[in-house]
Amino acid sequence: MTNVERGAKASRIAIVGRFPGSIFYAPCDDPRWEIWGVGPGAFGVLPRLDAWFELHNWQDFEQKFTTEIVREEDGLSYRDWLIDQPRVYIQGNGDEFPGALAFPFAGMVQTYGPYHFSCSVAWMMAMALSLTPAPEAIGLWGVEMRGTDEYFHQRAGFHHFVQIAYDKGIDICIPEGSTLLDVELYANPSI
Asked: Kind and range of the H or E element at 80?
């Protein structure tokens, strides 16, 4: 079992993505929540942030986006913003970012197996489940994984870690109206 040292000592973990329907409901003003952000679409919009997760290979990421990701209101680039963050989980050693911490990918796979890591949020859920002491709750804001694009197909891996949280007695919190925890059962959807 891989145990991960806690950053802030909050009793709850809030995973916050970029979905505009719920990102601003994240409990940034509640000190009981440690705020974990993810996704270039959400950079710089949260009033408080305890850790950021950029789990894509940075070199591949920069090549994929031929134009730099920049905030309209002030021209700040995602890369420059990451440089200023005190705690950024990434692949590798992170020489480019002073606050970089190597994400424990191998430890997560050793603990949970390789089959369910379908997206950054699944990796983040695994890390939250590996914290000592364990959080009393994991909440998700700005995360929806709906539609027919890549996000919908990532739900099954994410749901695996939700089940582990339930099995450990950890509450899962989502905003009202979210479909994130909705499932469609094969063959007998009426259960």
From this structure: helix 78-83
Residue 27: C-alpha distances to residues 37, 100, 109, 120, 149 (Å): 12, 24, 30, 20, 28
d(CA 172, CA 117): 18
One pLDDT digit (tens) per residue for the chain, 191 residues? 555 555 556 799 999 999 888 999 999 999 999 999 998 878 889 999 999 999 988 777 666 654 577 777 888 888 889 999 999 999 887 778 899 999 999 999 999 999 999 999 999 999 999 999 999 999 999 998 876 665 777 888 999 999 999 999 999 999 999 988 888 778 877 77
What is residue 13's DSSP assignment?
E
CA 57/CA 92 separation, integer angstroms: 9
Decide: 122 and 159 in contact? Cβ < 8 Å: no
Position 129, amino acid: L
DSSP state of 41: G
* Alpha-carbon span 80 to 69, nearest angstrom: 10
Domain residue spans of the chain: 4-173
Q: Report the predicted TM-score, pTM, of the whole model to 2 decimal places.
A: 0.89
The Cα–Cα gap between 3 and 19 comes to 30
